[in-house]
Amino acid sequence: MQLSIIILNYNVRYFLELCVLSVQNAIQNIDAEIIVIDNNSQDDSCEMMKQRFPNLKLIENKGNLGFPKGNNIGVSQAKGEYICILNPDTVVAEDTFTKVLAFAKKQNDLGIIGCKLIDGTGNFLPESKRGTPTPFVAFTKITGLYKIFPKTFGKYYAQHLSENETGKVEILVGAFMLMKRDLYNEIGGFDENCFMYSDDIDLSYLALKKGKSNYYFHETSVIHYKGESTIKDGNYMKRFREAMNFFYKKHFRVSLLFSAFMEMGIVFFSLVKMFQGKSSLGFGTKSSPENYILISNNQFFREQLEKQLGKRVAIQDILSLKKSTSTEIIFDQNYLNFKVIIQALETNKNKGFTFKIIPKSSQFMIGSNSSFDRGEIVKIENFR
Questions:
Q1: Taking the complete model, does pTM exceed 0.85, yes or no?
Q2: CB of 266 within 8 A of CB of 241?
Q3: Phi and psi (nearest 5°) for 299?
Q4: Roughly how many angstroms between the first and final C-alpha of the chain, as a whole number?
């Protein structure tokens, strides 16, 4: 088998459904498998998987075992030459894995490959490519020097490469990590002593220590509805601090002065992240856009949306979108493939639009309006 896609889920049933749909489309011409591991979700994630995707491998853990252990369990069941660690709040294009695997096979020193991640508004996520957060690099991040002098202090976000340039980087994000299964096992997988948040940094760094090269690959874009799996609350801050302390203690010799400095920095960033992620996952509870445009050829969908939303919904061609304000674009995935939808997000970013996707054969639409927004799900009554 060529590829195993490992998706660890925890309480994001609707994002998981969208993710798996996109992955299924992307592996139609690849000898591949999808393995979903559920960390004891309290929503109906597992029931949805059994009903909608009965032929996929589903591992149901009896508790929340954390990101490292959950993924390690999935990889232990994998049969592919390559594995891809994939977040459940992502959407891949139909040719994502074909392109990444073709690139992987050309590398003689392959470590881990990451790809271009965008948020729910189509904007690039800078954590798609990073440098090792050494004490000095962490300092430039904490002080904001990387923003003021990106050419000199831009290592934290690997700014030697643009977002549209493929090349070697040091650290990749756990939302999308593709590598050979043998290397994953040789490294020992994710360190289960780290519950979450620095596990992807640690795995990337361990690949480098094996003499391998990690790559950022820009020729495919993947939506990452960033933050859906974790609420930014007090527990998040505590675990984030623990994770960063774990990484530094594992890989660097640090003085007491440095430890105190990093503790202050970790607290600062934890607080920033906590406030950035205050939005809550809701079912149509956010302020409504003034205008709606449906990209579809289905008049029945339009009529049902008008009834649900209580506002006029126009059907429009994807190529005729113009800059607007307070307008939501709704993509009908029965009509458009995921690659076209992802390209439309990137093409129309920062034009006053928000975006939702109606997954194929589903009764909801889903999207996220910023890098810090936990996302919104709108259920649609009698949609089919």
A1: yes
A2: yes
A3: -65, -30
A4: 37
Chain-centroid distance, C-alpha 62: 24
How far apart CA 383 and CA 301 sit, in angstroms, is 7
Find, among 77, 123, 84, 79, the residue nearest to 103 by Cα: 84
Give the per-residue SS3 of 49-64. Answer: HHHHCCCCEEEECCCC
Instruction: State the CB neighbour count (10 A cutoff) for residue 271.
Output: 13
Integer Cα distance of 89 and 186 in angstroms: 28
pLDDT digits (tens, 9 = 90+) for 40-95: 999 999 999 999 999 999 999 999 999 999 999 999 999 999 999 999 999 999 99
- Rounded Cα distance between 327 and 345, Å, is 13
Burial classification of residue 314, based on how many CB atoms lie within 10 Å of its CB (0-12 exposed, 13-18 middle, 19 or more buried): exposed
Task: Please list, in sequence order, all residues whose beta carbon lies within 8 angstroms of the beta carbon of residue 51, skipping any fewer than 6 positions away.
Answer: none
How wide is the angle at C-alpha 247 spanned by C-alphas 164 and 213, nearest 5°? 40
Exposure string of 297-311, with b = 16+ CB inside 10 Å and e = fewer, is eeeebbebbeebbee
Q: What tokens does 283 get?
A: 């079912």
Contact 56, 49 (CB under 8 A): yes
Please report, for the chain, how many H helices and E strands are present, in that order: 13, 15
Quick one: the chain helix, strand, coil %, rounded to 5?
35, 20, 40
Least Cα distance to 124 among 224, 201, 204 occurs for 224
Q: How far apart are CA 11 and CA 28, in angstroms?
A: 27
